[in-house]
Amino acid sequence: MGDGKDEHGYHLFPERDPRNPKHEPFLSRVYGLKIRCKARLKIAMDTSPHVKLLLAAMNQAGCTAYRDRHFACEECDEKVGGGFDSSTSEIVICQNNINDQTTMNRMLTHELIHAYDHCRAQVDFLSNIRHLACTEIRAASLSGDCSLGNEMSQFKFGVKRHHQTCVRDRAVRSIMAARKFSQETAEKAVDEVFDSCFNDREPFGRIPHNTAEANMAYKEFRNRGRYYANI
Ligand SMILES: [Zn+2]
């Protein structure tokens, strides 16, 4: 019968070992978060019009994103919700910081805009701060990061002013979080490219402020595709 140490096969299943109480809760917590993250990712890809439109646009641009290959649920620093790794074309989803479906949908939309920009424009996010500023402006504006209800300061500035002010601030903060640039350098880059990048609403064709507007944009995108296909 041996010395009793491995008779239950706990060496194969350390999470089930009652003699290992410190190890078990951490592992099962991480495992649970990963399962939930993957489930929310699937729901977003199946139901969010923002996400579905971006996936269709990526596909049309020749950069089809596959759920198993281009999306990874991982543990991250508590300050970040997700990221786009341009070297591997992977979107990282921070399973420990995404706590509901709405946050998942918005974060995925934000990162998919970076992936879309990377695909269509061969942008250089790593060394060109103006490229980085441009994609952060577009991601903040089109993802819903600055939509009504997501921030309260709209009452102070009015809806339109609020949206632009919020987009500018978020783009500056994202640049500073991603790279070691000073606030002054980040602000200068954002201001230089703001107008042209803010007005580039591809592939939505509009700022999709809510689900209804995103559904409309998705419908228009599909009709555009059908029109081209009929020529
Ligand atoms: Zn970003």
TrEMBL record:
The keyword Protein biosynthesis does not apply. The lineage of its organism: Eukaryota, Metazoa, Chordata, Craniata, Vertebrata. Its EC number is 3.4.24.-. This is Mitochondrial inner membrane protease ATP23. The keyword Repressor does not apply. Belongs to the peptidase M76 family. Keywords: Hydrolase, Metal-binding, Metalloprotease, Protease. It is an enzyme of class 3 (hydrolase). It holds the Pfam family Peptidase_M76. Residues 1-21 are annotated as: Disordered. PANTHER family: MITOCHONDRIAL INNER MEMBRANE PROTEASE, MITOCHONDRIAL INNER MEMBRANE PROTEASE ATP23 HOMOLOG. It comes from the Eukaryota.
